[in-house]
Write a structure and sequence with these properties.
573 residues; alpha/beta; Nitrilase/N-carbamoyl-D-aminoacid amidohydrolase; Rossmann fold; 20 strands; 19% strand; NAD_synthase; ligase; EC 6.3.5.1; NAD/GMP_synthase
Length: 573
């Protein structure tokens, strides 16, 4: 019985930090060697970080990536390493290098280049057109990259026809709600359909608005999970694969026999390695991480996304405007969980319209989180503004101008603290507000990062209840009182917009699913409400374009996912 030990290095690289990524890869190679792994695989573009975007258009960036690959190979012996990098031939390719005995023995080029949503790989890479098959001790292992495995007809099929027992697929697959389950089900189908073991290694960590969830896993030929890594955590995942058993199963399967007769994959490079699969001296426990609830994964994605944006960009502390409302409360919780209470500052900026209850709630939250807070009232500043505008506004009634002045005063205060102390401002707006423009440019939209930018208001409440289930930090009243910007007496969000459960559904149908007015109305919504919200969404594209970036958690976030022209006369009705 011949068993090969696979190690999947679920790491968190940093885009463009070659020295850091190189050392991280070496660290995990050494861990894998100590655990007697035969093969250790790293994520897609692990050497450069993902996605490097237009850095790929810099020749010096490509050359530096190749320099570190050469440097890396000198440190790889007594194990086979598969590492994602950028290959340079007549063009550039998203590639996987197979390193053995201090040599790059083979290179695989990604065949299916995603060019939808947040992906732009056709902008940078040429498509690969060949297979790379490793022959190890008379057994065969195929190599593929990320998108290659998502299509029904893909390199996994060809590797099975060529007699491979295992396919290793390296990935940089970002998180969105529901994707982890869909991905896992897809991989189970691929392994079952091809009677092949699949080792899927994914990246973890935050990169700008993307968060990579990990969830690396190894499946047997029946689609059963042999080992699964934790989500959002660096980890070395190991499993022993019985290659003889796979070979016996494949011999008995007529589907593969027929496919081998009918279809002969072309352009296959088979690399015969003199590597002998190790006789293991130690047993490993093949860990299967427990599935998390979707809300738990979403919260973790927001924490990791904020943590890595702050740390990878060299910031130390953040500052948040605390209003006593649900959005700023949840944002503060995420910040403390991501960065530690000592690195989070809260600022209360009450006006004459701020209720006593809101001040009490903000202070209680800060006390529960144990963060330092400052109170800077804005009434006198606001009064001075009104005094200066008295002549030019003469005869005009107060309107949103005066409301927005208050938001912009608060924005100025936060930015002044940011400038003086080097704290980055974390905006607290959510996706519901961003969608309909219920926010103020240069006011509550100021900030270097918007944690809740892709989180609908109803999901804000779900996340807040979830956070309180861990430890009760958000005051009860924050969870139950009507949301309000408190920019004038008796103001509430839902009176100006719609009840959030209705508003959020319309946003989902229009923004995330591209349904028409007629289609949304047929789902049970009032036509006037649908038209009102769609009109607000369409006309506020200019605002969203000026908003800070934030963490993507849905299938279609504003920004890279949904790219609408600002100057645009197309109307749905």
């Amino acid at each position: 019985m011949k068993k090969i030990r696979l190690a999947l290095a679920q790491i968190n690289p940093v885009v463009g930090d070659f020295e850091y990524n190189y050392n991280k890869i070496l660290e995990f190679i050494e861990k894998a060697k100590k655990l007697e792994a035969d093969i250790v695989a790293f994520p897609e573009l692990a050497l450069t970080g993902y996605p490097p975007e237009d850095l790929i258009l810099k020749p010096s960036f490509i050359e530096k990536n190749l320099y570190y690959l050469e440097k890396l190979k000198e440190n790889v012996d007594n194990i086979i390493a598969i590492v994602g990098f950028i290959d340079k031939q007549e063009d550039v390719f998203n590639a996987a290098a197979v390193i053995y005995n201090k040599e790059i023995v083979g290179v695989y080029h990604k065949q299916f280049l995603p060019n939808y949503g947040v992906f732009d790989e056709n902008r940078y890479f040429q498509k690969g057109d060949g297979l790379l098959l490793l022959s190890i001790d008379n057994y065969k292992v195929g190599v593929s990259i990320c998108e290659d495995i998502w299509y029904p007809e893909n390199p996994v099929n060809d590797y099975a026809i060529l007699g491979a027992e295992v396919v290793i697929n390296i990935n940089a697959s970002p998180y969105s709600q529901g994707k982890v389950k869909r991905r896992e089900e897809m991989l189970k189908v691929r392994s079952r359909d091809n009677l092949i073991s699949i080792a899927y290694v994914n990246m973890v960590g935050g990169q700008d608005e993307l968060v990579f969830d990990g969830n690396s896993l190894i499946l047997d030929t029946q689609g059963e999970i042999l080992a699964k890594a934790e989500s959002f955590e660096e980890e070395l995942l190991l499993a022993d694969i019985d290659l003889d058993e796979i070979f016996r199963l494949q011999l008995k399967d007529n589907r593969l026999k027929n496919l081998r007769y009918l279809k002969k994959p072309i352009n296959v490079k088979e690399i015969r390695l003199d590597y002998k699969i190790k006789n293991k001296n130690n047993q490993i426990s093949q860990k299967i991480a427990l599935d998390r609830k979707e809300i738990e994964d979403t919260y973790k994605a927001l924490v990791v996304g904020l943590r890595d944006y702050i740390n990878k960009n060299g910031f130390k502390k953040v500052v948040i405007g605390l209003s006593g409302g649900i959005d700023s409360s949840l944002t503060a919780c995420i910040a403390v969980d991501a960065l530690g209470k000592e690195n989070v500052k809260g600022v209360l900026m009450p006006s004459q319209y701020t209720s006593k209850e809101s001040i009490e709630d903000a202070l209680e939250l800060a006390k529960n989180l144990d963060i330092e807070t400052f109170t800077i009232p804005i009434k006198n500043i606001f009064d001075k503004y009104l005094e200066e505008f008295q002549e030019i506004f003469k005869g005009l009634k107060p309107d949103t101008t005066e409301e927005n002045l208050q938001a912009r005063i608060r924005g100025n205060i936060l930015m002044a603290l940011s400038n003086k102390f080097g704290w980055i401002v974390i905006a607290t707006g959510n996706k519901s507000e961003m969608s309909v423009g219920y926010s103020t440019l240069y006011g509550d939209m100021v900030g270097g990062f918007a944690v809740l930018k892709d989180v609908l208001k109803t999901k804000v409440y779900e996340l807040s209840y979830y956070r309180n289930s861990i430890s009760k930090v958000i005051p009860d009243r924050v969870l139950t009182k009507p949301p309000s910007a408190e920019l004038r007496p008796n103001q509430t969000d839902e009176a100006e917009l719609l009840p959030y459960p209705i508003l959020d559904q319309i946003i989902q149908f229009y923004v995330e699913q591209d349904l028409t007015v007629e289609e949304i109305v047929k789902l049970g919504f009032e036509e006037k409400d649908v038209k009102k919200i769609i009109n607000l969404i369409d006309k506020n594209e200019y605002k969203r374009r000026q908003a800070p970036i934030g963490i993507k958690i849905t299938e279609r976030a504003f920004g890279k996912d949904r790219r609408m022209p600002i100057t645009n006369r197309y109307k749905e009705f």
